[in-house]
Amino acid sequence: MNVKTNAEKEWLRKMTGGKPVQAEVEKKPAAAVAKADDKPVAKPTRNGFKDVAGMDDLKQLVTEGFINVLNNRECAKAFGVTPPSLLFYGPAGCGKTFFAEKVAEEVGVNFIKVVPDDIASTLVHGTQEKIGALFAKASRQAPTVIFFDEFDAMVPQRSNDDRNYQNGETNEFLCMLNNAAEKGIYVLAATNHPERIDRAVLRTGRIDELIYVDMPDFDARECLFKLTLSKLPTAEDIDYARLADLTKGYNCSDISYIIKTASRKMFNASIQEKGKPYKVITQALLEETILHKSPSVSSRDLREYERLRCEFSPKDESCKHQSIGFH
């Protein structure tokens, strides 16, 4: 017989709205359990898409199909429209998770971010319980956007071995994802490995649209340098176009790291001279930093992602699978 740890009891208590777990808790009818955690979540106050460099086509797609529906629910109901569930996939470090979080800042509904560790359990069927509790909470707080990061780790392809515990977890997700939007639960997910996801998850009604998030193009790289450096002490003669040209093949996280490295160097130089104006980040420093930082996504990796793109994003633009990135 499996015995839950107090930590796991407490997690389930939070997801189901129960009272704090003691060493022994008297069982009470479900109707009598207080749902203290079901209070509305405060609306985000950050900048939403204003913080996203480039990705204009993706912004438009998600705005028209997802954000506008949630922000105009009465009109959407009249037209029988619900937001599609979306899976962002593509090379690592291209802003999939960041973008999904910014979507939440554009809509006035509850938002829950879930990573694999949030639903992991050492108990048999423990993860299934957590998945059920998660969707139950989202339903009570509806409308709710749930964002699953590293989605491939949560819904791996099922094996033919019925004793494989992960089969049960994937099955539970299949049940919970079925037409979730009709219950006021709107699903976003991100992965670097769509090929690892059970194919039954990727059918419409569960995950409706697959969107390929590509490496940043020239304009996106230039915009990212401008957006990030505008918040820092920077020289006035920065050549953003040259920086974008020098970082061809670099992803968003690479560019962010280059700027952080240059910024850290100027920070340390500034604190050596107390009482004087801060040192500024210069063009020469940025170019030197780029020379010492290689792209984190190799050409071999990119070839594999292009293969996956061909597999999961049909050429027919009228199909449900979209191929949209930083274009």
* Order of strands, widest sheet: 2-3-4-1-5
- Counting DSSP H or I runs of 4 or more residues, the number of helices is 12
Uncertain runs are: 19-36, 40-44, 318-327
Please outline the major beta sheet: 5 strands, parallel
Terminus-to-terminus distance: 55 Å
Number of strands: 5
Based on CA atoms alone, the radius of gyration comes out at: 23 Å
SSE pattern, N- to C-terminal:
HHHEHEHHEHEEHHHHH
User: What is the SS-derived class?
Assistant: alpha/beta
Mean pLDDT over the residues: 83
Helix content class: 40-55%
Quote the beta fraction: 5-15%
Shape: globular
Tell me what you see in this structure:
This protein is an alpha/beta fold and 327 residues long. The protein has 12 helices and 5 strands. A 5-stranded parallel beta sheet has the order 2-3-4-1-5. Helix 7 links the parallel strand 3 and strand 4. Helix 8 crosses helix 9. The protein is globular, with a radius of gyration of 23 Å. The termini are far apart.
What is this structure, in a nutshell?
With 327 residues, this protein is an alpha/beta fold.
Q: Which structural traits does this protein have?
A:
327 residues, alpha/beta, 12 helices, 8% strand, disordered C terminus
